[in-house]
Amino acid sequence: MKKLLSLGIAAAALALTCAAFAYPTLTGPTGLVLQPSTSVVGAGALDVAVDFLLTKRDPEPTDTEAIRVLYGVIPGLELGAAWLPEGDVSTWDINAKYKFPIEWEKFQLALGADGGSVMHPNGSGGTKSDGIYDVTLVTSYPLVEKMLKVDLGVTASGRPVGEESGTKTIAGVTGFLGADLMLPYGLSVVGDVSTISHALQTPTLPVGLAVRFAPEEIKGLTIQAGCENMGTYSNQYSFLVGAGYCFGGGEEKEMKNDTMMKK
After folding, report:
1. What is the DSSP letter of 124?
2. Helix, strand, coil: what percent of the chain each, to 5?
């Protein structure tokens, strides 16, 4: 029975060779739906992704696009940018992440940072810009090699909050847990959930879930569909669909390093 199980896992792993191309989060760095993972794009690769989001909001739904670009500068280091326009409000972000070239008991470690701005009308016909930032430390572990990886991280964030006297930036710390399950035929399922931050005034758990498809016939292409709730409002969630393409053929695969680093 154990031999049959081992053969089944090996056969599934062979079918997964194109299922795990890195894909950016909705806000920029390579990762899951909302949260970054330890994966980065390969050196010299350019990754471009666009997702369309239909957000349920009162009194009516709104449409948002999430446009992201990532570039692998050197092995382990990626730089990127993201733009999310939504009506008269738009958010831009610049991000960087470094995956440390070390491994302990199959654990991998990455450190990321991003900063940007939320631009919105100021009420007098002009535009106001409020700064945002995140610093994230994330570790990953392959529960089942080349099939199931979990990510655990902590993020220190700064977000603008409106008050009677104006807008100020508040800081808070959150933790998150994510997973990437790789299935046959180029399919994978990714998801993440974060803790509530009273300091950042998130009333609900930020949760993301998506299915990704990397067709073997088109190397570098990844398509995803799913839903997310960024935790901004209890009655807000978004359905999303998008695609990304890696130019340069050097994109790192999610679980590739487990065997490479042992050689």
Report:
1. S
2. 5, 60, 35
Cα–Cα distance list, 81 to 6, 49, 116, 148, 177 (Å): 42, 11, 9, 28, 24
* pTM reported for the whole predicted model: 0.81
**What are the chain's domains?**
2-260 (2.40.160.40)
Q: Do residues 78 and 41 make contact, with C-beta atoms less than 8 angstroms apart? A: yes
Question: Which residue is associated with the tokens 């940007």?
Answer: 116
Give the integer Cα–Cα distance in Å for 99 and 101: 6
- The confidence band for 262, taking pLDDT boundaries of 50, 70 and 90, is very low
Give how far Cα 103 sits from Cα of 175, 201, 262, Å. Answer: 22, 36, 9
Between the two ends of the chain, the Cα-to-Cα distance in Å is 30
The arithmetic mean of pLDDT across residues 106-122, rounded, is 90
